[in-house]
Amino acid sequence: MTTSGGTLVLASRSPEPGRSRPPGPYRRLFSVPGARAFTAGNLLARLPMGMFGVSAVIMIAGERGSYALAGAVTATGLAATALVAPWTARLVDRHGQARVAVPATVLAVLGELALVLCVHHGAPDWTLFAAYAATATMPNTGGMSRARWAHLLKDDPAARHTANSFEQAADELCFMLGPVLAAWLCAGLFPEAGTLVGAGMLLTGVLLFAAQRSTEPPASGRAARPGSPLRTPGMVPMLAVFLATGAVFGSMEVVTIGFVDGPAAGAVLALQAAGSCLAGLAYGRARRTARLRTCLAAMTVLMALPLLAAAGTGSLLAVAGALLIAGMATAPTMVTGMGAIQRLTPEGRLNEGMTLAVTALLGGIAAGSAAGGWTVELAGAAHGYAIPVTAAALALALTLLPAGTTKTVARRRQISSPTIDKTCRPA
């Protein structure tokens, strides 16, 4: 054991007899004061994000007898969210998480309740679109949680990497459990149950999250507001990568539903999310991080496995196993990509920068869903798995375009940590 500058440094040898091993990265992460409290509230608020879409489709299709109407209403809500979310995130950065997230959540919950009332009482179809569009003020709870970690761990890049990996694993877990919980509530209780329970969980979780003021990052204020993240060199190319990556997820979901064509589709899709969740937790323990292009190359290769399984064997079991393995490339890619977004985003605009990335991802999911559905109709579900592979290859190709802006920005902001420098090299 040695000391350097007054700091205790452990030599790389086995612990002495009778002395416990140092805590792991996740245990150290949640020893940060206030971390467990805001994480619990955020997870409660984040779970409904995977419930609302499924709940709306089941509720509207069940009451109105039209999946086309249900799909159009949810698509309208997605489009409204893509427009409104960056503005909500900008207000969060400017005025603080608690001051903006709570009223924004109340408005979104009122929209969900209005949708339930309109569907239940047989209101005209146009009211469903208006009600669901009102939910677009829903704040990006995952982005706010990442912003808190970035604030609390600003001098510890290794811990930030672990935090980002945990947040990605939490995203996968919520989007794996959310649809299952929504379907169970709507089918087991009544069609509106999924939306009502999700709205209650969202509001309760945001209130608990916002109450943890000690961990909240400071508001930037109007006077100190820097330029838009979109004007930062390298941001637009990164958003294009997120757009292509979103197409991987959107097409994979639709093609898998078409291939399974039955109630087992949800369980098969959950395997992909489970693989990503496990990989995200493992990636958070890694001492070294990978380049974004390396992660995307791995994703391109692994996304070919479902295509080979479906076209070569036609076996559902083989496709399910391939999806589990393919999902393991998702979380490392998203963690590395979100890390790049955080470095490119000007100080005081972190929520807005990450929300722009999520918006690009949602746009890619919508485009991938359309492309996947079109391919399934024309060429069959097995060949539809070529769309995720193509989208992943496109994302990889975008990182290979000549660009040195990311490295220039990193140098200008004087990022000196070896962990950060490694991921700040051109993707």
UniProtKB/TrEMBL annotation:
The chain crosses the membrane at residues 43-61, 67-88, 100-123, 181-211, 232-252, 264-283, 295-312, 318-341, 353-376, 382-403. GO terms for molecular function: transmembrane transporter activity. InterPro entries: MFS, MFS_trans_sf. Pfam families: MFS_1. The keyword Transmembrane helix applies. SUPFAM superfamilies: MFS general substrate transporter. Keywords: Membrane, Transmembrane, Transmembrane helix. Residues 1-25 are annotated as: Disordered. This is MFS transporter.
